[in-house]
Amino acid sequence: MTDIVIPDPGPGEVVVDIIACGVCHTDLTYRDGGINDDYPFLLGHEASGTVEAVGAGVVNVRPGDVVVLNWRAVCGQCRACKRGRPHLCFDTHNATQKMTLTDGTELSPALGIGAFAEKTLVHEGQCTTVDAAADPAVAGLLGCGLMAGIGAAINTGAVDRDDTVAVIGCGGVGDAAIAGAALVGAKTIIAVDLDDRKLARAREFGATHTVDASSCDVVAAIRDLTGGFGADVVIDAVGRPETWKQAFYARDLAGTVVLVGVPTPTMTLEMPLVDFFSRGGALKSSWYGDCLPERDFPTLISMYLQGRLPLDKFVSERIGLHDIEEAFDKMHAGEVLRSVVML
Q: Boundaries of each Alcohol dehydrogenase-like N-terminal domain copy (predicted)?
């Protein structure tokens, strides 16, 4: 635990009082050097809070607003934005000024946010105003993992009513994909994992069937549960060559594969090219659930408050800043979906 210095907000910048911040696997990847080596990092990015102060020119939020932070502050000017695809923005914004240690050492905020702290400095576009009635611990999780999973199903996979869906990997992102598929009315939702505890949790989010990948052929099992055809949409929430191949061969002809699990740079894939041609369909990667925060966050919060989306079930425990290392261990062991730091 240490003190940090938060500068007064400059043009387009906002200081946010953090209320809650989820402990995400990406934070662990930062800590272990899997992102880059721009130490020291200020971790934490699945956060909600209250706007404390705004800089010159800020128009989207004002002091007192309850916000969820996001790492896709779209620019409005890049080629994707100008073509009406802001969810693919190539030039997202972060705060210009740096937060520092008290000796002046500049900090690298995780995903441009850095919310394992009482306050943080972000770009105004990283703040999305949401209904203040939402539990802050729940709302903040939309800032990364929950949006990635829900969006992988609804935005990227375009799951629709009566579709058959399989989700490989039932951690936080996978369960969010299951919840998203259930929300839009998928008729069959198959959860695949190696862990019985995770498979049991998956049913709480809407899985109609489960497959224990440790004891059967995953592709055959998914086909058996879909009339022999395969699923319309298969979501790989693990991000390994083995699971991606399972997803590819477990989809129906002209079906869709969505990769939302993040592979490491050293992973490679070798497959017969003719299989790509002969099966048709779509192979997609989902970045942040292809979301547009200002569109998606308020809508999902509204559905949660109406009781239509069980986002509260993702909060496994509420902890303090001093508990983060233990939370990383619990995440590794599969004991929690999300530990949430309460400030």
A: 10-130
Please say if the pLDDT value at position 264 is more than 90.
Answer: no
Distance (Å) of CA 135 to CA 140, 258, 309:
9, 30, 13
Provide the 10 A C-beta neighbour count for residue 244: 22
User: Does residue 242 have a pLDDT over 90?
Assistant: yes
Tokens of 321: 């800043």
Closest by alpha carbon to 334, among 4, 25, 111?
A: 25
Rounded to the nearest angstrom, the gap between the alpha carbon of residue 307 and the centroid of all alpha carbons in its chain is: 21
- Element of type H or E holding 129: strand 127-129
Whether the CB-CB separation of 232 and 254 falls below 8 Å is answered with no
> Could you name the CATH architecture of 149-287?
3-Layer(aba) Sandwich (3.40)
What's the pLDDT score for residue 162? 93
Give the CATH number of domain 4-143+310-342; options: 3.40.50.300, 3.30.360.10, 3.90.550.10, 3.90.180.10. 3.90.180.10
pTM for the full predicted model: 0.94
The backbone region for 119, taken as left when phi is positive above 0, alpha when psi lies in -120 to 50, beta otherwise, is beta
| Contact present, 247 and 257 (Cβ < 8 Å) | yes
Q: What is the pLDDT of residue 93?
A: 86
